[in-house]
Amino acid sequence: MSETTPAPxxxxxxxxxxxxxxxxxxxxxxxxxTAADVFAARGFNNTSLADIAAMLDITPAxxxxxFGSKTDLLTAVLELRDDSDPAPGGSRMLDHLVTTAxxxxxxxxxxxxxxxxxxxxxxDRHPAQEWFRDRYTVLRGExxxxxxxxxxxxHREAASTPGPDGRTPAGxxxxxxxxxxxxLQVQWLLDPEAVDMASVTALxxxxxxxxxxxxx
Amino acid sequence: MSETTPAPxxxxxxxxxxxxxxxxxxxxxxxxxTAADVFAARGFNNTSLADIAAMLDITPAxxxxxFGSKTDLLTAVLELRDDSDPAPGGSRMLDHLVTTAxxxxxxxxxxxxxxxxxxxxxxDRHPAQEWFRDRYTVLRGExxxxxxxxxxxxHREAASTPGPDGRTPAGxxxxxxxxxxxxLQVQWLLDPEAVDMASVTALxxxxxxxxxxxxx
DNA sequence: GTCTATATTCAGATAGAC
DNA sequence: GTCTATCTGAATATAGAC
Lengths: 216, 216
Hints:
2 copies of one chain form a homodimer. Chain A has 2 domains: 27-79, Arc Repressor Mutant, subunit A (Orthogonal Bundle); 92-212, no CATH class. Helices cover 62% and strands 0% of the residues of chain A. Chain A contains 10 helices and no strands. Chain A has helices at residues 27-42, 49-55, 60-66, 70-79, 92-106, 110-121, 129-150, 153-159, 169-190, 197-212. The longest helix of chain A has 22 residues, at 129-150. Chains A and B meet through α6, α7, α9 and α10 of A and α6, α7, α9 and α10 of B. The structure holds a DNA duplex (18 and 18 nucleotides). Chains A, B: Keywords: DNA-binding, Transcription, Transcription regulation. Chains A, B: It holds the Pfam family TetR_N. Chains A, B: Residues 25-85 form the HTH tetR-type domain. Chains A, B: Residues 48-67 bind DNA.
């Protein structure tokens, strides 16, 4: 089900941090990518090490040799960022988000992982809680800055002025954009025909930027 | 943690299908409410029948007597709608959504259940998939209508005219509103100080309605 | 460095006592 | 009508063979 990508070993040769692979990309890496696929499709709690192992024709213990525990494997998967399309800074980032939504619909993989796991992480004692809390904090900051960048200079001050609760309009807009993307992913996974992630994301970004460019 | 609602037996007397409750609201009902709380806090896959049973000082089998299986219990929990604040029709519904977001932040219970479970349901073979797919379809319809109601009559036609992909702007806005509410819930659960669900929800609704009231 | 075989814990569900 | 005691299978992790 996950063999959509034909090339098994696609990465730029001469990457900066290849850890001296005298053999070829070690088993560890195969496990990592397989685990990412399976976690994305079934969530963390609902995935067993046997599921992952079966896809590689090994036993569960084979997986555990490379990563000490299932939780460690999850952590490693989350750390494995997808650097194939680095997020640009500044106001270009907002366009990048739409592009990302577009790509996600074509390739239900990488970021489906984040949509499914982030919601799962919000449950008690989930091992990825801290990771996702930090991630959202960073994202809200970056996207908040991107929103400010897109506003006309005359609106920036208002949008970056904290209200009585200490939160800024730009930050609120950033939280909204992230929330829309996550929430849409869930709706789309359940019913792909029903929503167009990219266009709805674009609509919300446009609407929010326009809204922050008014005084009312 | 869950004793927010003081009245344990709130249902209209003379309801059409009261199954002759000679005693008082049966164990079944207690189990149902406890299960809802625990599913909300820990998700479905990560909750064991023992967890639920422990809170009632009984054994897992005690739970299974009332509901044939864990999946049946989940289904029953989902069916148990919270009728304490029925959603109004028409454009009032949008205000109701903001109110709902406000209440959710105060009482992390009922709809936290939906936020956590809906995302979990998007994973393979989850027992609640169909339930959530249907729920989202209905919600998009209702909220789409509410959006149209709020628009000026002169904009309604444009907003309800399907584009080349067969989807209407009002439907897109509806999907966006739902997505924002779900996504915010996740961010809020992970970091309650970081986002104000109600105000962000209001912001997005305002922005979308304003956006759909322009020609561009 | 890689994995098979095994131990241990805990899940969901069944049959039958109260 | 309600639940305790028990069975069966599957989960993660360990110890040690190749």
